[in-house]
Amino acid sequence: MILLASTVSGSIPVNQLINSSKQRPSSRSCVVNSAVAMTNEVKRSCEFYDMHKELIPYAEAWSWQKDIVKKRKELIEREKDCSDTLIILQHHPVYTLGTRSSEAYLNFSMKNAPINVYRTERGGEVTYHGPGQLVMYPIINLRYHKMDLHWYLRALEEVVIRVLSSTFFIKASRIEGLTGVWVGIILLEKLD
Hints:
Low-confidence stretches: 1-23, 28-40
Number of helices: 2
Number of strands: 10
Number of domains: 2
């Protein structure tokens, strides 16, 4: 299973990014401990695209991610190893609706939407993305980790909690029954 998830950190100019007729931005490849797997036994290669200062249209970022997943699947079919990928960016204002979401949660008609709205193949309800909100898109092959989506989401939450604590001295936690990382009563990061 290749997982494409979104999480809510050399920047690359927007004009070099994500238009399918143009070359994709180059990554800064690195070897990281498999933090998501929470083990020190295996080191995996990770392509890291740091565009946290860029506003990237959602449709372009989504298309780019699907291209990466397609290439990873082709490598797996040929029994080749493939690296994990992490993309960090911001979006222009946009709403996404997951596979089970309801338009009833929008405060406007889809026909007269004030900003772009996209239905995606991902989980989650209605999610807003916009300037100032860092979005992280990890693309990993769970065969190298653990084949369990809920485990993966809890592991991502744990990484965010640890980074907030160790880097920013912010105490964050989970709320039973909800997905995401919370500071006080404010949802800091929604994993959809």
